Amino acid sequence: MEYKFTPPQAALALIEGHRIEGYASVFGRRDKGGDTVLPGAYAGALARMEARGDKVRMLWQHDPAQPIGIWDEVVEDSHGLRVTGRLLPEVARAREAQALLKAGAVDGLSIGYRTLRAEALPGGGRKLIELDLWEVSLVTFPMQAEARLSQKTDILGQICALAAQLRSARAAVARL
C-alpha cells in the first residue's frame, strides 16, 4: 500500500463539529514524492467499490485499527478527489481528532492506495494514471500541500444546544 499526504491549501473543513470535507488529492500537482495524479485516476476504483456496495474507509493517520468515521461521499471533480464525511462521536479517537481539527493541530488528508497504472516522469516521480483507492486518512503531515480541510465551524456545539432546548421544551409541555 502506498500513501499520499496532502497539505492544507485544499481546505479541509470541520463543519458542525463532526462533519468534514476537503480534497484528499488534487489533480496535476506534483507532490513531495514527485508524483502527479491525473484526472480519472480514481474512477475505476470508485466504480468497483460502488458495484460491491463498499466504501472508502476513513482512518486516523493510516492506521487500519483506527477507523474514526464514515466518508459519505468520495467523488472526482475537475479539481481532484473531494471527500465529505463525518467523525463518529461514539469513537474515542474520533473525539480526539475533532479536538485536534478544531485547534488546527491537524488539517491534512492523505490517501492509501495501490498503483495500477503509472508512467515515469522526466527527472523522477510518476504520472499516476490509475489507482486502487483503499482509504482516506486525517493526518498531521500530508504529502500534497493542497489536501486539506476546507472550513471550520462548531455545529456539534450548536446541535447540543438545540438538543438541550428541545429537552427543556418537552419538560415544559409535560408539565402542562
From TrEMBL:
Keywords: Hydrolase, Protease, Viral release from host cell
GO terms for biological process, alphabetical: proteolysis
The keyword Protease appears for this protein: yes
Annotated TM spans: none
InterPro entries: Peptidase_S78_dom, Prohead_protease
Domain of life: Bacteria
Molecular function per GO: peptidase activity
Residue ranges annotated for the Prohead serine protease domain, each copy included: 18-150
Record protein name field: HK97 family phage prohead protease
Origin species: Roseinatronobacter bogoriensis subsp. barguzinensis
